[in-house]
Amino acid sequence: MQLAHHYFEGTSQAYLVGKHDGKLSRLRPRTTSIAQLLASHGCNDEGFAAFVTQLLQTEPETRPSAEQALQHAWLRGAASGGAYRALAAAFAHGSPT
To answer: Strand, helix or coil at 73?
Structure first.
């Protein structure tokens, strides 16, 4: 936690660290939603946006585990073939490769 002050100020102010004009800078993230960002790139799939939003939760308590993520309705619908079943079975047996 020695570097936490570079990323967080207070309880809800998150910053990204990056380079701007060759200098290390703290950048404040935009408030654009995942759905808006995806739509700006031509993806209007609300189910996919919901799936990605869940995976990107910053709090571990609210972020789904790999097993929970595999149960998401969008993923199950998008990969209704054998690939989904093989991946789900691999996670169930403890070897996701």
So the answer is: helix
Residue 44's pLDDT is 86
Q: Which of 6, 3, 5 is nearest to 24 (CA)?
A: 6
Q: From CA 42, how far away is CA 88, in angstroms rounded? A: 29
Backbone angles phi, psi at 21, to 5 degrees: 55, 35
For residue 34, give Cα distances in angstroms to 17, 27, 46. Answer: 20, 18, 10
Distance of CA 13 to the CA centre of its chain: 19
pTM for this model (two decimals): 0.54
Name the residue with higher pLDDT: 3 or 48. 48
